[in-house]
Design brief:
Distance between the termini: 49 Å
Structural class: mainly alpha
Number of helices: 8
Helix content: 55-70%
Number of strands: 0
Radius of gyration: 16 Å
Largest sheet: none
Length: 156
Amino acid sequence: MDDLKKPEVFAAYYEKVYRELYYFALHTLKNPQDAEDAVSETVTDAFATVEKLRDNEKFRVWIFQILSNKCKRKLKEYTQKTVELPDDLPTSDATDESLQVREALDRLDETERQIICLNVIGGFKSHEIGEMMQMNHNTVRSRISRGLNKMKEFLA
């Protein structure tokens, strides 16, 4: 069993998931700087509390759960701000189709968007998402189905 308390071991585990963490945060928060901050805070907190992780095989689920909670807090901060966030993110190579998909994703409510991102971007199964978000896995499955159907309607 690897010793995650060692920075080089922790870094090796983090290196496997950092892109997914960022994309999840970006799609959830819709702001590149806030996404970077959320991931940075997540890594700092995860390393500081790594001894709480009992099974290294659960590292990915565990760190996504921390990030998910950070993003929820950030979204609550957004609702308390009086300044509007930009609707469109600057994209350099986004195709028309990917912009439409992003817009459809943005039209989902916060929880549906988070679940869809965890499933599609993170590749998590419903029981893993249920663990992270403290929901029944059947509820997660129905929200995935409902969210994807809404996106299909938006894209039609």
